[in-house]
Amino acid sequence: MDSSFMEDRQLMRTQLNLLLQTTRLWDSQDYVQHGDTSCYLHSIAVAWYSLRLARRLQIPVHAEELVRGALLHDYFLYDWHRKDSPRLHGLRHPFIALKNASRCCQLTWRERQIIQRHMFPLVPLPPLCREAVLVCLVDKGCAVFEALQGRYRRLLWAQRMARLACLSPSVA
Ligand SMILES: [Fe+2]
Ligand SMILES: [Fe+2]
Fold first, then answer.
1. What is the number of structural domains in the chain?
2. Which of 33, 64, 91, 118 could pair with 42 in a Cys bridge, judged by C-beta atoms 3.0 to 4.6 Å apart?
3. pLDDT in tens, 85-120
4. Closest-lying ligand to the alpha carbon of 122?
């Protein structure tokens, strides 16, 4: 395990704990995203693999903003599978997530880019910074993995993400 792995894990935990204290991110555990993966674990996975991909490809990024934006990229706070959820979820949820996140966080320009533009090209607003491009790509990879993998592998993957997150907010 290289030193950047440990540093990245610490960065993830720090940013996640900060957001758990100031947002309703913890509630996203109650909402299914893809397959049987919760929105919470999906967001952690997207943040983690975006950060690791940046390291692997040696792409210079603002790591804290990358992780915060990725953790909030699907902060829409409803179950999109339900009939009473907002219509046209695929098109609208980046804007709903941005509105929700703006209410509880002072977002930077990069964080706003990450949240608002992660559904490109379905939503025809291209990401304009490296961090937003990474999240846009990794989000799609995670979505495919979560939707297609077998139940057993998904469970192993969810456990890994749960360990990364500690799965216990510092404030309940
Ligand atoms: Fe999304
Ligand atoms: Fe997503």
1. 1
2. 33
3. 889 999 999 999 999 999 999 999 999 999 999 999
4. 1
